[in-house]
Design a protein that fits this description.
- The structure is a single chain.
- The chain folds into 2 domains: about 5-100, no CATH class; about 110-260, Distorted Sandwich (Glucose Permease (Domain IIA)), CATH 2.70.70.
- Strands 14-10-11-12-16-8-7-18 form an 8-stranded antiparallel beta sheet. The chain has a 3-stranded antiparallel beta sheet with strand order 1-2-3.
- The N and C termini lie far apart (about 65 Å).
- The protein contains 4 helices and 19 strands.
- By secondary structure, it is of the alpha+beta class.
- Helix content is about 20%, strand content about 35%.
């Protein structure tokens, strides 16, 4: 008898005539998979499919050209193939989207990105507020998850994309000089939070799904930045800051601050 696995819906798998709940299926994988200790469950971001295909084609063509025109030893042969496979796997890894339970709190501001806190300071925000705010900057290395999420529940009241340079994202002036996209949300308490996607030296494309006038829930995906970047978030001065410099944060999980 042949059994085959069919995706039934987001909560179930069908194996032959048996329906298996997705949570049970995942738990079974956790118990039996060799890689279980290092596995978090991911999907590949839709923005990554073309990049993965391009990386695969470049790797295949490059390896073929080297083997066709250059005589190589067996060791070098294996090394070249390993590098090609490694590049493709890195691009796949870059576009991973981990399944996370949102650490919801109506009074909290959640980190909009994964990375390391590189700045916490009071700064005059000149694009939207034109007054002093607490700025928290999160640097994302190419190894971090690059999906960006909404930090609070609230209406999107401002969205604006700015073309610009591609300086190293950790530099302070990158916030204004680099290509960036600014989004502002208004909380039900009347407070507004601004966050800015900033392209880095390697990043060449910012993707934002934010639309002015829509209501966005805390932790919902709002975009992605491709390859090495930064996110700045501007909070009211009255907000209580809950992170420190050099602290690692995760989108959907880390509370970086609380409304007073």
């Amino acid at each position: 008898m042949f059994f085959f696995l069919i995706w039934k819906n987001k909560k179930q798998f069908r194996l032959g005539k048996f329906v298996i709940p997705l949570n049970q299926q995942i738990n079974n994988i956790k118990k039996t998979c060799f890689f279980a200790p290092i596995m978090t469950y991911y999907k590949i971001h839709k923005e990554g499919f073309i990049s993965i295909l391009i990386a695969f084609l470049i790797a295949v063509v490059a390896v073929w050209v080297i083997f066709y025109f250059v005589k190589v030893t067996l060791l070098l042969h294996l090394l070249i193939k390993t590098v090609g496979i490694g590049i493709v796997l890195f691009v796949i890894y870059f576009f991973r989207v981990p399944y996370r339970k949102i650490n919801r709190n109506k009074n909290a501001i959640i980190a909009p990105a994964d990375g390391i806190v590189v700045q916490i300071l009071e700064e005059v925000e000149t694009e939207y507020f034109n007054d002093k705010r607490t700025q928290i900057s999160i640097f994302m290395s190419p190894l971090n998850v690059h999906v960006n999420t909404y930090p609070i529940d609230g209406e999107v009241v401002y969205v604006k994309y700015h073309p610009g340079k591609h300086l190293v994202a950790s530099f302070p002036k990158a916030s204004k000089d680099n290509e960036h996209n600014t989004v502002v949300q208004k909380h039900e308490n009347g407070e507004e939070v601004l966050f800015r996607q900033i392209a880095g030296m390697v990043a060449r494309r910012i993707v934002s799904y934010a639309k002015k006038g829509e209501y966005a829930e805390q932790g919902k995906e709002m975009g992605i930045i491709k390859f090495g970047s930064r996110v700045d978030i501007f909070l009211p001065l009255s907000a209580k800051i809950n992170v420190n410099l050099c602290e690692k944060v995760q989108s959907k999980i880390t509370h970086i601050g609380y409304f007073s």
